[in-house]
Recover the amino acids of this structure.
């Protein structure tokens, strides 16, 4: 019996979410927003909280500073049953921060990187890998120190019996390069539609999915309000989204990922796995922030019946 179900190697930063129908302007122009919320940020941490909310035993490794934002993140993740005992706290280090201007289903993001990019593959020991059957990585393009060693880390995980999953998130440089070796050792790939099309240089979803299906074992492609598309073992499946009243889409894709990985680890069929993922992503949008509305397994399963 392993100590955990999932090990997450990722970035640590809170989100300061400003909500309101405004556009910032320079020239010392002050505009009023409707609300401000400091909440758990980072795709990796939101995924970890979502997986723990579904009942998985989740361990997290990353770097943060011994500062107010770092302590906030560790306290909040622990409160949501994510094990943070392997997080590396850097004295004098600066924890990253994202300031998000949220306008309904759209948002603008400003991020102070801090230690977001500092985790390396060498920080993740074989002893830690042996404690879980699955390794998840998100925010590939922000984790620049992890990038060079990630294919070897995934190979090392495979040699120790772990499966692997990857959500790249968006590439700020829009180069989308260097994935051939990494995708070859990725068991579950979890892009959204824009990321999949950019990565494959495809104009539409299904050609992008077909290209990616030949490079990873399982593809779960997020289509937002249109649901999701999955490909595994030559099987293509589409599922619809769950209609909800959207308050905030921050972290919806990470909650989708948590639902899919939960189902993947249970050995569920592809269609049922996608349906759970789509439900988890949709339900998470009903409150501000990425974690406040993440469903329990029981809450998600009610929507599958």
């Amino acid at each position: 019996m392993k100590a955990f179900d999932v090990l997450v190697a990722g970035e640590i930063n809170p989100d300061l979410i400003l909500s309101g129908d405004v556009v910032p302007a320079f020239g010392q122009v002050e505009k009023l927003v409707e609300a401000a919320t400091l909440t758990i940020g980072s795709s990796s941490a939101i995924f970890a909280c979502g997986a723990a909310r579904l009942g998985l035993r989740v361990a997290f490794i990353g770097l943060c500073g011994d500062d107010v934002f770092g302590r906030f993140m560790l306290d909040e993740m622990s409160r949501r049953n994510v094990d943070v005992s392997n997080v590396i706290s850097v004295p004098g280090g600066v924890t990253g921060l994202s300031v998000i201007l949220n306008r309904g289903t759209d948002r603008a993001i400003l991020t102070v990187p801090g230690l977001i990019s500092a985790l390396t593959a060498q920080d993740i020991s074989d002893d830690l890998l042996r404690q879980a059957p699955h390794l998840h990585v998100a925010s590939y393009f922000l984790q620049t120190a992890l990038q060079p060693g990630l294919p070897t880390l995934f190979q090392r995980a495979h040699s120790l019996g772990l499966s692997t999953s990857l959500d790249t998130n968006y590439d700020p440089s829009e180069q989308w390069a260097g994935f051939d070796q990494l995708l070859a050792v990725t068991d579950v790939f979890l892009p959204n539609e824009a990321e999949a099309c950019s990565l494959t240089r495809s104009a539409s979803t299904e050609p992008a999915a077909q290209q990616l299906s030949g490079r990873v074992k399982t593809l779960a492609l997020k289509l937002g309000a249109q649901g999701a598309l999955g490909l595994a073992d030559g099987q293509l499946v589409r599922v619809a989204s769950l209609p909800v009243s959207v308050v905030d889409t921050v972290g919806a894709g990470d909650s989708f990922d948590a639902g899919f990985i939960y189902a993947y680890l249970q050995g569920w069929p592809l269609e049922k796995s996608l349906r759970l993922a789509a439900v988890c992503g949709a339900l998470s949008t009903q409150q501000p922030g990425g974690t406040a509305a993440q469903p329990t397994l029981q809450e998600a399963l009610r929507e599958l019946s």
In short: The chain is about 30% helix and 25% strand. The mean pLDDT is 94.
